[in-house]
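Chapter summary example.
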Amino acid sequence: MAKRLGAHVTGVDNGRKLDFMRSLGADDVLDHRREDFTRRGRYDLVLDLVAHRSVFAYRRALARGGRYRCAGGTARALLRVVTVGSVAARVTGRRMGVLVVRQGPASFTRLADLCVAGEVTIPVDRTYALDGVAEALAHVGEGRALGKVVVEIR
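The structure predicted for these 154 residues follows.
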């Protein structure tokens, strides 16, 4: 979505996923095991799905006026972002918080329309039957999924 809006996108994940991120349109890709993106440059927006680093590292990665939003991580990490991170960022002209998405179909109408029109595709890595939930969770937990993992309920 960010590329669609003209943003320069840097993707960060493990080395096995670098080509996949490029195929999705990332301008730069980084292997988080080899390079710390928070020491590499300054970003206007960081969307974090795992929140493994300290709030001070994330603050360091933000340009003045930049925003950090986490959409996943442990309860402890999320609490640090909304407490310590929020205050530490605000003092330096940055903003940190948790990504909150409103519930209900109205929040996803625009994205759904883009998907139906073929302008946005959501890559699916694997599909599992309901009795394969444990295997699906293991696949995601090992960091091997390239796209969404779907569990079909029939």
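To summarize the output: Strands lie at 10-13, 28-31, 43-48, 62-70, 95-98, 124-129, 148-152.
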